[in-house]
């Protein structure tokens, strides 16, 4: 894919680096010549010096052929302008960073496909780390309506040596939840389990559940025999 990134701050450059590593063609736009030089020499991206909300600069950077665009500028207002221009030029996939939630609806109306609320995301991640220290990681989808948890299976817990089918049929297993991933050992690949998959002690599972079922799910997985 050809990806345009507006802004070469820490987040913008980190995103560019990851996309380059994944084999995408990346172009960064920034008003700072030093940041552009770094993007070219250290990240391996193309870089265009100038305003990411200038039509001339965007056209020079190839916005008409971009498969995706990420607005990572220093303010929500600038990101909103970039999203609007990206939509105007027909970019099919538009991602933006959002600092203040008041901009969520304007971003959607302007055409952003994905809105990453940086402050809310950071706070939510820290709250989860405090409330659920046993959860290795947690992701939110559909504005927090669905949670995906990564949980370790303790050696003496109830689900050890039981199959996915047995666990799902247990009346204590939260309704509407699914075990969607299984990693027998940290050095092994994550796999998609089936009903006959047996959970081994020390393994890891990915579980989809609803926010109201988080405590119930954690208590069920970690419950002792």
Features:
24% strand; four-stranded antiparallel beta sheet; 8 helices; alpha/beta
The end-to-end span amounts to 50 Å
By DSSP (H or I, 4+ residues per run), the number of helices equals 8
The coarse silhouette is: elongated
- Give, in spatial order, the strands making up the sheet with the most strands: 3-2-1-4-5-6
Order of helices and strands: EHEHEHEHEHEHEEHEEH
The largest pleated sheet is described as: 6 strands, parallel
Question: Mind explaining what this structure looks like?
Answer:
With 225 residues, the chain is α/β, with parallel strands linked by helices. The protein has helices at 10-21, 33-43, 55-60, 76-88, 104-110, 118-131, 164-169, 214-222, and strands at 2-6, 25-30, 46-49, 68-71, 93-98, 114-117, 135-141, 146-152, 178-183, 204-209. β1, α1 (10-21) and β2 (25-30) form a beta-alpha-beta unit. The longest helix is centred in the middle third of the chain and has 14 residues, at 118-131. It is elongated. The mean pLDDT is 89.
Sequence-ordered SSE layout with sheet pairings:
Layout: E1 2-6, H1 10-21, E2 25-30, H2 33-43, E3 46-49, H3 55-60, E4 68-71, H4 76-88, E5 93-98, H5 104-110, E6 114-117, H6 118-131, E7 135-141, E8 146-152, H7 164-169, E9 178-183, E10 204-209, H8 214-222
Parallel strand pairs: 1-2, 1-4, 2-3, 4-5, 5-6
Antiparallel strand pairs: 7-8, 8-10, 9-10
């Amino acid at each position: 894919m050809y990806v345009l990134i507006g802004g070469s701050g820490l987040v913008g450059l980190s995103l560019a680096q990851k996309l380059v590593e994944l084999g995408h063609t990346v172009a960064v736009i920034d008003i700072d010549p030093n940041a552009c030089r770094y993007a070219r020499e250290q990240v391996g991206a193309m870089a265009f010096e100038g305003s990411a909300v200038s039509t001339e600069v965007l056209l020079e950077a190839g916005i008409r052929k971009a498969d995706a665009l990420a607005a990572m500028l220093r303010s929500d207002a600038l990101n909103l302008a970039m999203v609007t221009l990206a939509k105007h030029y027909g970019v099919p996939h538009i991602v933006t960073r959002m600092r203040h939630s008041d901009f969520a609806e304007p971003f959607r109306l302007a055409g952003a496909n994905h809105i990453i609320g940086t402050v809310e995301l950071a706070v939510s991640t820290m709250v989860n780390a405090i409330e659920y220290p046993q959860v290795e990681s947690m992701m939110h989808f559909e504005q927090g309506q669905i949670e995906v948890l990564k949980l370790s299976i303790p050696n003496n817990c109830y689900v050890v040596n039981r199959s996915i089918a047995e666990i799902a049929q247990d009346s204590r297993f939260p309704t509407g939840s699914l075990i969607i991933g299984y990693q027998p050992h940290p050095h092994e690949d994550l796999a998609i389990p089936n009903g006959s998959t047996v959970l081994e002690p020390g393994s890891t599972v990915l579980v989809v559940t609803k926010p109201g079922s988080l405590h119930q799910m954690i208590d069920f997985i970690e419950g002792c025999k």
